[in-house]
């Protein structure tokens, strides 16, 4: 399906991978890419590893010349200072272009509320990092200064039960009409190389956010390949 705007693929590694297995993933991806490079024009690929791995992986991506950008999985609501364990926007700014904010796992396990999430969005803006704001339904509050939103129904995350592309497209339509400032709506929840084409074929969706399917380099490569083919397929 021909698109006039880029299609996003945002891989979320969550709390997975040691330094060694993260480097191995890059070596595997490099091998796959050299064997069969993909035409990724019209596709933006962003990987969100643990913050721990960002320094190593940003160097590797340059060394291997892979077409990947980086995102953080979270950002501190504070600029800097006595906030033990937090990673701030100014610390992330040289390493990432994007950050997830408000992922349902952070809302659930870290009791993140809307006022804290607004502070995180503000810190991202100060640091020049683009927030990918995660919501679990069309009714949720979205800060004014967000342009990219990921619709991720909780029941679909990590369950293997993906939302249909038709339903996800309907929610994307509702989000766009409620929040005209949004430029990009992506869907996340059990996206794999086997179902990703249905989301590419849904005009209201501008991308996907695979978690589990980004952990294996071969499966992630295959997912990217499916997207590159589908965005060029005649409608
Ligand atoms: C996610 O990481 O937000 C996610 C949607 O995970 P999964 O693809 O594994 O459901």
Automatic annotation (TrEMBL):
Its main location: cytoplasm. GO terms for molecular function: triose-phosphate isomerase activity. Keywords: Cytoplasm, Gluconeogenesis, Glycolysis, Isomerase. GO terms for biological process: gluconeogenesis; glyceraldehyde-3-phosphate biosynthetic process; glycerol catabolic process; glycolytic process. GO terms for cellular component: cytosol. Pathway: Carbohydrate degradation; glycolysis; D-glyceraldehyde 3-phosphate from glycerone phosphate: step 1/1; Carbohydrate biosynthesis; gluconeogenesis. Its EC number is 5.3.1.1. It is an enzyme of class 5 (isomerase). PROSITE patterns: TIM_1 (PS00171), TIM_2 (PS51440). Pfam families: TIM (PF00121). InterPro entries: Aldolase_TIM, TIM_sf, Triosephosphate_isomerase, Triosephosphate_isomerase_AS. It comes from the Bacteria. It is found in: Cytoplasm. Belongs to the triosephosphate isomerase family. Homodimer. This is Triosephosphate isomerase.
